[in-house]
Amino acid sequence: MVHTERITTEITEPITVFLIGMRVNKLLPFSKWWKVAMAMPPMIASLMKHPEKGMLHAESFFRFGPMTTIMVSYWKSPEHLENFARNPSDPHFQAWQDFYKLVGTDGSVGIWHETYVIEPGRVECVYANMPMFGLLGATKNAIPAKGHRSTFRKRLQGKEAVTGH
């Protein structure tokens, strides 16, 4: 469903934002980067099947030239994220080991990630003509972007928005 009005969302507890991706540095051998890329779908399927593992929402993107992927995911906490990454019974653990056996430091395929913990009152977002996307997809809490939520500064500062800055 596309929300046609301007909406926002708010968080009441810290939320962890995790960015992860892959960059193909050498097109050949195809099998190396393809195996790395194909490791992600089973991880996401497992996380969607088990919401108790803490992933709230995820969005994936792809760029050509050079081929690069990025996934933006939202988690209940950094502990949930770390537990998933390090648990030998979850699919990430084996994929991580397989990457270092298959690619190691040969430079053919790059992987990266960044983690941010965002506190309530320190995040701002707005959506227009959008479905449940990004942080809104994680919170599932669409709020009209009106009144004390009508501008970037007001949304970022909350009800006590400071004016004149």
From TrEMBL:
It comes from the Bacteria. InterPro entries: Monooxy_af470. This is Transcriptional regulator.
